[in-house]
Request: fold
Amino acid sequence: MHSGAPLKGKALVIMKEEQPWLIFELTSEFRAAVKLDHVVEIVPAVTLPPLPNAGPFIEGVADIRGRVMPVLNMRRVFQLEDRPMIYSDHLIIVRTSQQQLCILRVDRTIELVDLNPDAESLSADNLVRVPYIDGVAKHNGRLILLHNPLSLISVLSNQSERSGILAAAGRGVN
Reply:
């Protein structure tokens, strides 16, 4: 606490507050997290109609309460061994802009945790630059990649601009 006396030769450090993150699992050894601010809802796996020529990360589309959204296979995004969807998979609906939603298919969601990215993470500046990773946090002795869905969607939108799939599907085409 600052006593009101002048701070001579001292730096005032302001720590950002902890933020809630949703940790998800892609294999038994691989975990990542997304800021809870981006998460709209978590739903169980549903049958996905495939989208031909949609790109390697887009597994298909899902109709969730009348809103059609693209489904990103997060195993493919992180270059892990792919597998077919199973009934126990989770779909994390994330907001990618004020109007746009998309779905992240993961093996399962694990828990909500409060992380202080400034205090507990390794900055992405110290890593090989990956546009959709904000850093790496350590939680319960495990490394957790801090995933940024906004950056991922930006990268994918640039790659699939010709098809318009992400833009059209994420706005709720009926």
